[in-house]
Design brief:
This protein is α/β, with parallel strands linked by helices. It has one domain: Metallo-beta-lactamase, Chain A, CATH 3.60.15.10. The protein has eight helices and 15 strands. It has a seven-stranded mixed sheet. A hairpin with a 2-residue loop joins strand 9 and strand 10. Helix 7 packs parallel to helix 8. It is globular and about 70 Å long. The N and C termini lie far apart (54 Å). Bound molecules: fe (ii) ion. Fe (ii) ion binds next to helix 3.
Amino acid sequence: MKKLISLGLMALISIIGLSAIYRVASAKEQEPSGGKVTIIYDAFGKPSDLERGWGYSALVEYGGKKILFDTGGQYAAFKSNVDRLNIDLSKIDFVVLSHRHGDHTSGLNYVLEKNPNVIIYAPIETGSFGTPFSAPQALQRKVELLPNDLQYFDGKLGKASVDSPWKNANIKLITDTTEVTPGIFLIRTVSDVKGTLELAEVSMAIKTPKGLAVIVGCSHPGIEKILGKISEISPNIYTIAGGLHLVDKPDDTVRQTVTNFKDKWKLQRVAAGHCTGHFAQVEIAKVFADQQDHSGIGEVIFLP
Ligand SMILES: [Fe+2]
């Protein structure tokens, strides 16, 4: 009898052991990636109950970090999509605001309701996200005959500051390329393009085994200018996701840019969204074929 029981126990232990090994193997098979990007907010995508809107927001999960990149263009639509995607904003490690435009910042108040102390990285630029302000020379000019009541700060200029619209938010300003957590970089570039002259934008680059995975908001400074700056970290760039701002560019410029993605920048994949534009999406499909990731609202892009 004892022998029978011990044989049964041995069989049970080996079944448990085998199923544990099987579970590990199948978990590995189901997890082909080191991380993922979930598109929370955009104006296109596969049919779903998510609200389309002009703007961009994505949840980036990599190396144990959860990063919210931009917050969409409307508070209500952003809130609705975050809730429908079951994203717990209280668990976000940090937020990146790529630039000051409303189509990337309008959901921030919802983030702050759920996670009031979360670190928010944004590009430094005068007057947008709460800029440290020490009175510049122009304000300090002494002019004879100027009555006291027309003098700035009663003629006693000291240190002052300009709040952001999110006065109590924990905003940290990015001046230049910064590794904010191991393997994750924020890169600041400034636009010299007509229409967004001097606008500063922050892009994110994540080190992966296959090269950098780059997330961009709107690429106002120019996607190739951004790639140039990012290539100072590493010339090996695996993929780009986000708004490439090719929507208003001439067809020839779009064709050349997309060709450069492949031939000059050696990108292996492209997950273009937001302000990339219809024409550019087709050009990307022609050049990248099945290496184009459709990245509409609700879509998940896996990173190596
Ligand atoms: Fe935008």
